[in-house]
Each structure stands twice: as structure tokens, then as C-alpha cells.
Amino acid sequence: MKKVFAGWLSVVLVLSAFVPTMAANETGVSATEQATALEVSRSVFSLTEARTVEVSADLGEGVDLEDVEFQFGGKPLSEWQQWTEGQNYNGDPFITVVEEPSFVEGTNKITAVLEFGLLYGTDDLSNRTIRTQYQQFIGDYELALIDAASGDKATATVELNVYDEFKFYDELKPAIDDIFEAAEQDADNDRYLEYQTVGKTVEGRDIHFVILARDEAAVDQYLNETLPTALEDPESLIEKLENDTMGDYQVPIWFNNIHPDEVEGVDVQVELLEKFALEDEVKFMNTDGETEFEENLNVDEVLDDAIFLYMFTSNPDGRAANTRANAEGFDLNRDNAYQTQVETQQVNEVLSKWTPLSFVDFHGYVDGFLIEPATPPHNPNFEYDLLIDNMMEQANAMGQAGIANSELTSYFIAKDGYGSGWDDMTPAYTAIYAMLHGSLGHTIEVPTLSQDGYNALVGSGLGAANYVHDNKDQLYKEQLEIFKRGVDGEDNRAVDEYYVNAAGEVIGRDRGDNENFFPDYYVIPTDDKNQKNALEAYKMADYLIRNGVEVEKTVKPVEVDGVTYPKGTFIVPMDQAKRGLANAMLYEGDNVSDWDAMYDPIVVNFSDLRGFDLEEVRVENAFDGKTQELEEAVIPTSTVKGNPPKQILENSTNDAIRVVNALLADGKTVEVLTESKGKAEAGDFVVATNDLRAYADDYYFETQVFGNGKNAETEVLEQPSVAATGSAQLNFSLRQLGFELTDAAGADVIVSDGGSFNAAQVTGKTFVGIGAPALNAVSKSGLLPGFAYTSTGSRHEGLVKADVAEHPLTAGYEQEENLYVTTGSWISGVPEGAEVLASFQDSDDFYLAGWWPGYEQAQGQTMAITAEQGETTFNLFANSLAFRAHTEHSYRFIANSIYDAVSVEAEVVEKGKGKGKRKKKQ
Asked: Is 554 exposed, middle or buried (0-12, 13-18, 19+ CB in 10 A)?
């Protein structure tokens, strides 16, 4: 398929930046002259494969071969120079004449042979510097043979691509449409094809999703009969499989891409869709490790067993921009558990709906052709013994087909060949998240960005389908066994042998003093007495429902272990098919610090990181008959109590911060309490009742009538001017809270989790530094004498017990909090006069979960301080306040720091007496 015109325009515009533009008269070609056709032996050229082309044309009589020259894209071949480094294209020409022009004997026809070599000097463009640049060259070009003396020329339109099948995002939907149209025009093709837009990206692009099945009845049966039964009564289907009475049924195979700059994973799916949608037989090469042979898949027979699901890419904005991250700067393959981004929220809701048997996530690029399953430590919420054998077999099936259909000569399975550091402990990765649904989840990494990498992934996709086709009953039975353990509440000890420590010793699931690793219930209170953050409680219930977890709510008060849970309390019963997924998000986590390497942070723990109360209940049938299923968790509207002049807006949720910022943006007066008195607590806000009512339907916040605290001292907030430096995630979090961001030079407050630090810009401002890079920048600046920090490693992370001091910057927090650190750091030198805001608890059990070799050194150390030095206020945190937008419980540390910097003193506020005298704080 030709490239779209928009893509060609982008090529021309970018090329003009470094290739001199030549006017028509410089080549002697008149704008009015007509070109003849240039015959070419091929019309598609590749950035990853050298190719020759024979060209020929008849330019008439009298042509002197010495005057014959070639142009590509309107420029001489000599100007198409190879990349050397950085942004430089000043090497040798990559398009050359390898057989000089000559006449075909007895004719005026001129022939020559050109070679399109490798623009980047390699057939592997996975180098990150190259990956950001190569797409500017993709497009349609004019290839011309020219008689310089007369100006006559012969032309052909040819295509330059990275590999033959690459498509820009805007070409994906037309390619899908072409397949649908071809299927519809084939009278003998009665397969079911359905296109869905499963959501929109940050920038408004469609997330394309295609369902391919034998017929619509197969889809309806799976979604409305087979899957509901599998989740509710898996034992009945197991019995049918064992008795050979299951009858006709299909299981889903999901193809996926989440890193769109690992480009083959998108285009491979188009070919796999085309093959299974349009062909009667799909032939491909395979190997048993010794002998190669041809495999022949009868597609109708495959569709008797499988429903194919194509998530071409869950990050269309990244595909359009050629980036790994989405438009907000998030790596979505680290967001599958957290789901802070709209793309992962929408895609994983669809994944939860389908619960595929096989999940294949196409990636690149590592050293070698890598296929999961992964190394230990393994997430203890998997029924690993029911997954691993089938995953190993499918991995081998994919690897064998991958090398048989490409020039790659080997593959390796991470679990066997990686040692450590390619683990499946965190459900942040797409394939690992899928495993919590009982899927055979595989990440596949090709080693090169090339035609060869593309061919290997096509082969692996065919191998995956062939494996499911050959083993459907066995595979489905074991997925059903996973669901059965959940429904039965069974903690089967067969999993334990796979859970080992770094020494290879079997440790099993960490059950503590309990018989069962899983509790009977998780209880998420929603009432004021038992829940400190009802907003996050409702959001958690919504998350669980969206991800296919059953949630109930009490229909009357229930007393369990001496605690009475009111009507409306959320209950997560753990005797359900997807209890592993629920537990992975809700349990405290594991300490795996004995391992020498981990691929990525592992702490998920929504309760502590999002900041809501959660209780484990280990009483069987404690809520039986006292609940009803929660279909939807609708966050309640806020209540503004009575009609007094003012309300106390409690600093208890992130929505309270959003309301304050909305009020300030609308020019309303907001005061912050600087002392506790009556129901008024220091750090809460005071707002006119009539001003606050306008926000009650759009935000969830908690209020008290400003009565008993009417004489409490306050300060008045000014509109903050805030800058963010460092990660895109920090920028996102601040915007989530409603702060309008500006540049550092013009800001009152600079918030940073990065290593850049401009000493001149912080004078007269507040600098909020988060994590080791920011602490290091302050330390190196020398602006804060006596300050020092220590870090064991920038990737070390952990959930820890912390002691929190009473201070305006810690308003809204309890004296003991579980906080999160992700740069392995603490403050080892506290400047004279500085105030300690938080410390790592000085107890042997202070470390709760994560991967932090050497965490013991942090026990009792300082976590956060505030210090005045000259005209600058330094608020420095070793704990992570905005990590991947998941540590929402820590957001208000940032907000408190910002508001403290922009509050002004006021006289004692008395009921009905205005704002008092303002005086800027010194």
C-alpha cells in the first residue's frame, strides 16, 4: 500500500532542513517539460535491507551517456548521504550507481543498475538515536533518469520504507478497512469481523480494536455464556471437558502492542489479521529445533477453536509521534496496574471483559530474541503452577516459528536464560497484568528493528495461534482450574515450589501466621468513622469493577471481629475467579530485597499509595446474605452544611486541593488555618459557603461549619505560580491537582524530581525537591550548608513506616504513615535550624515491601526536612511524592509546600469580619 500524502509532506519538510534544495533550472529541467515513464525492476526500498534496482527508459535519439544522471526526490544521488552520528548525515552516498548507464543494443533504451544501500550503515535501527530520526525518510519519492543536456527525464514513483510493511498511525485504519472490504467482497468468506474504537487517547486519537471469529454466534456464545460460566462455575466446564461433553466453543487469542516505537508489533498484527481474515490456508515455516518444515494452518479449523483479538497499539499518540511514551510522557507498559492514564484504563477494561486465554505482547529491542515466561521472583498472586508449563510450551512454539520464518538463528526464554532482572513480580507490564486474568501472558522482544525483526514476530504470532489450536482443551482446562481455585478460596500449595528467594530456596507464598495467603474479604469502608479518604475508596471500587473484580456493598450494618461496618461499606469477597488480580492490587506487597536485580518497581498497594483505609477480614462467610453486588461505584456529590458565612474545607482529599485551585483561579478568597481550634484543624481551608457550593457537584470534599473554630488564626492564600522540573509524571500530577504551571524563572515555587538545579532561579522562592536526583542537585549547589543525603541506588524502592511531625507542611497526615521511596535515599545531614518533617520509623519492621538492597541503613533516618537559607525555602523529600502518578496519597505534601509559599498573614478571623490585614510573610 502506498504511503498517504500527508506522510510524504512530512518527509519533504524534514528533509529540507539538511538537504540543499535545488531549483528546477539548476538541473536544466524546465517546469513545462513532460517526463516519460521510468521502468523499474522494484519500487519499494528499505532502510534495513540493501536492494538493487534495474532502471530503463527511452529518452529518444541523440542522448550522450556522459550526460545521463539520476535524482531521487528531486536531488542528486550524491546529496543522499549516510548518517554518521547525532543528527548528522554527511557520510558517503547511500544510493549509488553500480552499473553505469548503457544502451540496449540496437535501441535508444538506456539501462542502469542502482543500489539503495543502508542509510544508517546497519540493517538494525533499534539504536535509540536512530529510532527518533528514521521515520522522516519514509514516503513516496520520484526516482528520475535525466538527460542533463536536454532536460528530458523519465520518472517513476518509488517508496522508501523502514521495512516493507511499516504503516504510520494514520495508515492503520485504512489498512484495516481494506481487509474488511476484501473479506466482504469475497462471496465465500463468511467470517465475522468487527471493528471497535475502544477509546480515545489523550490527544483524541482512536484506539483501534478488531475481533475476528468464525461467526457472530461464536462471539456471543463466548461473551454471554462460556466466559460467565467460567468465572462463576468453572467446575461445571471442567467436568464437561473431562467428559468430552463441552461441545463447540472458542477461546480468545489477544495480539498486543503497547510500545509503538517498537514498531514491528503494530504492523505484524495487520498481517496476522489479513492472513486469518482472508486466507483459506496459512502456510509458514516451523522447526523442531533440528529440522525445518512447512506448517499448514486451515483457517476455518483454527477459527473453530479461537477468536482473534487485535489491539494494534494501545498508544496511538506514541505511534503518531514515534515515541515509547504516551502524550503525557508515561510509559504505558508501567501503568497497567496503576491505570493513571486514559489509555490503560480503557484498554484494560476491554481486556478484563474478554479474559483471553493467550496474550501475546510484541516488543523490541534487547540483546537476543527473548520470549517470556520471566525470571523469579514471581508475583505470588499467580497460580503459577497452572501457568508455567503451558507458557513454556507456547514460548517454544513461538520461538521456533519465529526463527524459522526469519534470519534469526536462535531465541531464548527469559526464565531459563536471563538469570535475574527480567522478573514478573510487578503487574505493571501488560503481559504480566494479563496473567492475573489467567492468561498465558508473553512479552516477546526481537533484537533488531528490521525486516528480519518483523518476520520473526509474524512467525511467533502464527506459532502462538498454532499452539492454541493444537492444545485448546488442555489450555482452557488449566485456565478454568485457576478460576476454580479463586471461586473455592483455595490456596493450593502446589504453587509454593515456584516462589523462591535469591538463593534458590523455596519460600512459597508469605502467609505469615495465616493458613491461607488470601483473606476471606477485603473491606473498604466508606463512612467517616472508618474511612479517612472516601474519595479514594470509591475510586478503588470503580477500579476493581472496571478490571473484572466483583465488589459488593453491605445492605445493613455488619459486625465482624468487634468492628461494625455500616450499610454501604464496600466488600471484596475473595472467593471469586479473579481474586489474584484483586489481591495483587490490595495486599501490602513483598520484600524481595535479597535479589541482586529487579526489572522495575514492584510495590502496588493501592491502599497505602492512594491513601484510603482497607481492612483484611479472615472470617469465613462473615458477610453472607448481608450484601448486594455493586454494579457501579458512583462517587457521591459533596455536601455543604447549613448556610453559615463560611465553611471549613478539610485538607483530606486531593479533590480539596483541586477545589482550592479552582476557587483561586476564579478570584475567590481561600484561607488556610494555621492553628487547631474546636473542629478547625491546622492545614484545613476556610471558604465562603456561597463560593463553595458551586463546586459541590464536580468534586468530592468534606466540610465542617466554621463555628467553633471561628477565632482560629488563618492566612490568606494567593494564586500560586508553580514550575515543575524533572519528570513528565510530576508535571502531570501537578496539573491533576489543578496547579497552573509556568516556567521556573517566573514561578513562586519550583517543584523538582530531577537533577537540574539553577541556583539563581531559586532565590526568593520555595524549592521543593523530591528524591535522590533533586537532593543531589541541592547538595552539589552548596546553597544549603550542612545538608547531605545518602542513596543506596537510584532504582531502589520500598514502602516504609514513617513518623510524621506536626507541621503546616504535613497538614492532613497522621503521625504514623506508610510512605513510598523510589530512589533508595534518605537525608543524612540536617542543616542547623532545619525542621524535620518525616523520618523512617526507628523499628526493625519499618520496611514493608519492595526491592531495596541495603534498606536497613535507612532505619530511623530523616526522610523530609524544611529549611530556610537566605531568601530561599528548601522543602526536601527523600520519599516519592508523584511517582508515576500513583502515589496520590503523597500529593498533599506538595500542595502544602506550595500553599505555604503563597499564603499571607491575616489578623484573627472573626465571624462576619472579612479577611483582615494582609502582611506578606518574611
From this structure: buried
Alpha helix stretches (DSSP H) within 44-168: 128-131
Residue tagged 524544611 (cell numbers):
866
Alpha-carbon distance of 658 to 352, in angstroms, equals 31
Asked if omega into 377 is within 30° of 0 (cis), the reply is yes
Cα–Cα distance for residue pair 879/68, rounded to 1 Å: 69
**Whole-number average pLDDT of the chain:** 94
C-alpha cell of residue 647: 465553611
- CA atoms of 645 and 470, how far apart (whole Å): 73
C-alpha–C-alpha distance, residues 848 and 601, integer Å: 14
CB burial of residue 285 (10 Å; 0-12, 13-18, 19+): middle
Q: Are 737 and 893 in contact (CB under 8 A)?
A: no
Lookup: cell for 50 = 540493501
Q: What are phi and psi of 45, to 5 degrees?
A: -120, 160
Which residues in 654-686 are b (16+ Cβ under 10 Å) and which e?
Answer: bbbbbbbbbbbeeebebbbbbeeeeebbbbbbb
- The residues pairing with 109 across neighbouring beta strands, listed in sequence order, are 58
Residue 308 vs residues 56, 193, 219, 315, 477: alpha-carbon distances, Å: 45, 10, 10, 20, 19
d(CA 193, CA 310): 11
DSSP state letter for 907: P
φ, ψ for residue 390 (rounded to 5)? -65, -40
pLDDT one-digit tens code per residue, 457-510? 999 999 999 999 999 999 999 999 999 999 999 999 999 999 999 999 999 999
Q: What is the pLDDT of residues 63-92, one digit of tens each?
A: 999 999 999 999 999 999 999 999 999 999
Distances (CA, A) of 125 to 253, 262, 403, 911: 30, 10, 19, 69
3-state SS class at 585:
helix
Q: In angstroms, how far is the first alpha carbon of the chain from the final one?
A: 67
Look up cell 504470532; give the residue: 461
Report helix, strand or coil for 508: coil
231 sits in which H/E element: helix 227-232
